[in-house]
Design goal:
This protein is mainly beta. It folds into 2 domains: about 110 residues, no CATH class; about 230 residues, Porin (Beta Barrel), CATH 2.40.160.40. It is built from 2 helices and 22 strands. The strands form 2 sheets. The protein has a 12-stranded antiparallel β-barrel. It is elongated and about 80 Å long.
Length: about 400
């Protein structure tokens, strides 16, 4: 049975990796588009920047200069702004929601002077004027079409990372250890600065190792974890969620643990470089041990997630969760993980991480605590080297 479970897990990992490789190959086959004309920004001190307008919100304009890179500048410090591409201008009195009619939101190329935004429609040629003080967002028209009017498809806008590591020793003792992790997230809308509607999170991680030495039985390590979560937002910071998780850990005598739950989450901190969430849920837990009868538990899960992007685009992520069981107070568990991702070249990164699992009721002869320290190479998917 153990080998059957291992074969099934390996097949799942192979399927996921194949899907990721096919998706990446398809993305590489997309035809190249012609280079668009540049946008022009002139500051109040006369400095002229040539590049691309990205977006505007919270009284700031984000502009990518061909020379200076990405910058944020206040509207009050902009003398002129001219765009070659079309943008949607969302006023402060307009509530962004799906299927919002375009008639309420002017779209076209932009020309800004004297704190007035002139929007020239490419279809009608008409021009509308909106005060900078009345504009809540400037959004590229194609992004606005996908995220607000139409909505992205279920296979679009996934971000995340794939991490893999290995260690091999060939001597009197022979040991092989393989670790891997796949983290995917899809947020709607995908832009962090727009109010979220829903979010889907998928994670899979595993560690397999074998130690062989003469005249001694082989020692194996098999640790696998998979989870999925879907969030639906009531407000920009409060959401309801449903989740499912599966764990297998030979080192703790745990054949399979299944967790199904739902609850409420609160985003305490949210900005482009930092996010902090608190969650609580009611959970059903089924534990299958190697030498003990099944346990059917009703409990709660209390969790926190933290994400910080700092100097040189390094990313630190950390998660802790505790699951007490109310019908068996001895059967509680605590899990935590942390990782530091360091960019190397383009989408390739180096990651060092740790995973710690505490299970209070393992079978006799097994330790309650399981700790892993891993290193590996990470390939980022989408626009971010990590989850949001």
């Amino acid at each position: 049975m153990r080998y059957l479970n291992l074969l099934h897990t390996a097949a799942c990992v192979a399927a996921i990796c194949t899907f990721s490789a096919v998706a990446f190959a398809q993305a590489q086959k997309r035809p190249a588009t012609s280079k668009p004309e540049s946008d022009v920004l002139i500051s109040t001190d006369g400095e002229k920047l040539i590049g691309k307008l990205i977006q505007s919100n919270d009284g700031f304009v984000t502009f990518h200069s061909n020379i200076a890179g990405k910058i944020k500048i206040e509207w009050s410090k902009i003398q002129e702004l001219h765009t070659a591409e079309q943008f949607a201008v969302v006023k402060k009195d307009v509530k962004l929601r799906r299927n919002e009619r375009g008639a309420n939101i002017p779209q076209g190329t932009l020309s800004v002077a004297n704190q007035q935004i002139q929007i020239r429609s490419s279809s009608t040629g008409d021009t509308q004027s909106v005060s900078v003080a009345d504009a809540e967002y400037l959004i590229a028209s194609d992004t606005f079409e996908k995220t607000v009017l139409r909505g992205a498809g279920p296979l679009e806008d996934w971000r995340g990372a794939i991490t893999a590591g290995a260690s091999v020793v060939l001597a009197t003792q022979k040991s092989r250890t393989y670790t891997g992790n796949i983290s995917l997230i899809r947020s709607v809308p995908p832009e962090d600065w727009l109010d979220p509607r829903n979010r889907t999170i998928l994670n899979f991680g595993g560690a397999y190792g074998i130690l062989q030495q003469p005249n001694t039985p082989d020692l194996k390590t098999e640790i696998y974890h998979a989870d999925a979560e879907h969030d639906e937002y009531f407000t920009p910071r409060v959401y309801a969620f449903g989740q499912v998780a599966f764990d297998h850990n030979v080192s703790q005598g745990l054949r399979l643990e299944q967790v199904y739950g739902g609850g409420i989450g609160w985003t305490v901190i949210k900005n482009p470089n930092e996010a902090f969430d608190l969650k609580t849920s009611l959970s059903y837990v089924e534990q299958q041990f190697q030498t003990e009868p099944y346990q059917n538990l009703l409990g709660s899960t209390f969790a926190e997630n933290y994400r910080l992007k700092f100097v040189h685009k390094m990313l630190f992520t950390e998660q802790i969760s505790a699951t007490p069981a109310w019908n068996n107070l001895n059967a509680y568990s605590i899990a935590g993980n942390a990782a530091l991702t360091i960019p190397l070249y383009k989408r390739l990164n180096f990651t060092i991480g740790s995973v710690d699992t505490f299970l209070n009721n393992p079978p006799p002869g097994f330790r309650k605590n399981s700790f892993q320290l891993t290193t590996g190479l990470t390939y980022s998917l989408g626009a971010d080297n990590g989850t949001r």
